[in-house]
Amino acid sequence: MAYAVRLLAQGFQTSQGQGFIRFVAKMSSIGVGLGCAALIILLSVMNGFEYELRTNLLKLIPHAEFINVDGSGINLPTDIKNKLSADARLKHVFQLNKASALLQRGNRIKSAEIVGINSDYYQAKYANLFNAADLFDINTAGNKVKPILLGEGIMQALDVEVGDKIQLLLPQTSKDLSFKAPISAWFSVVGDVKLGGELDAFIAFVNTQELGELMAFSPEMTSNIEFVLHDPFIAQSFVREYGYQFNQAVYMSSWFLTKGHLFYDIQLVRTVIYIVLFLLICIACFNVVSSLVMSVKEKSKAIAILKTMGASHKQIRQIFILKGIKSTFVGAFIGCTLGTMLSIFLPDLVNAIEMLTGWEILNAGVYFTSSIPSKVVWWNVAGTFLVAVLIGLLATLYPANKAASVKPAANLH
């Protein structure tokens, strides 16, 4: 008897029904597959943006820093230096000068963030991005015209080339708030800098000692103290911890205040993607319910025959659960495979589309990356697959229970 039940059950599973039921079953698999593929692709893009933020942007901008308030400069006290040297969270600490200034060439003026760097700072942050050897050339120390490196966007805005001279106008502050003429100095452009994103539009590099002299700082004083951390995400608490111990009034800044919105935007978009595509997968699995319910109605006589041959409620329930799981499993597997493959090759596909159409999807002057990044995280793929199969399993419970409750006497006529 059990052998006959197994044979009939096997034939019942393979007869997927005809017409509309077959169509709904296929659409449910396609819907689950599309939902899984879309979820993996979009999550990979969000992971890519977060990876670019962590590995590229956070290497270029200060993690945390103290900024001079009154224009007299700041210096690290000995006790804080000792604490910092013993702090395992700290990777580097630099004293350097920064200033907001105007750059002028002819009748063209461009605002810029002037960053004074020394050789240690350059080697730690920018050595693999551009050549700044001219800034530290001792042969130019006595020249009236100092060397400067300009961001690519600034060079385009001022229409300058390497070798051209530009004027730097540095604002002066006074304690009585009276107007003072800006400090003026001439610089020679020795190279351009391409860091990517909006940084190229406003950043310029000079020798930090020369900038300090323009700002009338004594040799041991600087305008900024910058901290490079092993974990940039503790920057807010780190800068406050040491800022409250500092013996001078300083602005306490971190990358959360300047670029933190980018990270929070990524987290927000990722959460919205989770919710929307989770609902999409649920809707697709609802089609599994519909197809199974229709299958129960169509196969009510076959179910009754199985019961008269000895099939239990549990066995009938298992048949319909397997039918639903099969549909969801196939859709989720194909969708996850397709989504993973597209995510891996997405940057190349986007670059090919940009080359063919001439359309730039991400403007390098606005965003911190000029291409669509993608990073496949395998636990995202596995999680998407398991969640889809789990939702499909839950979707089969009602039709399976409905099939198990079919009464042979009412359907064998």
From TrEMBL:
It is a multi-pass membrane protein. The chain crosses the membrane at residues 30-49, 272-293, 327-346, 377-398. GO terms for cellular component: plasma membrane protein complex. Residues 275-407 form the ABC3 transporter permease C-terminal domain. It is found in: Cell membrane. The keyword DNA damage does not apply. Pfam families: FtsX. Keywords: Cell membrane, Lipoprotein, Membrane, Transmembrane, Transmembrane helix. It comes from the Bacteria. GO terms for biological process: lipoprotein localization to outer membrane. Belongs to the ABC-4 integral membrane protein family. LolC/E subfamily. This is Lipoprotein-releasing system transmembrane protein LolC.
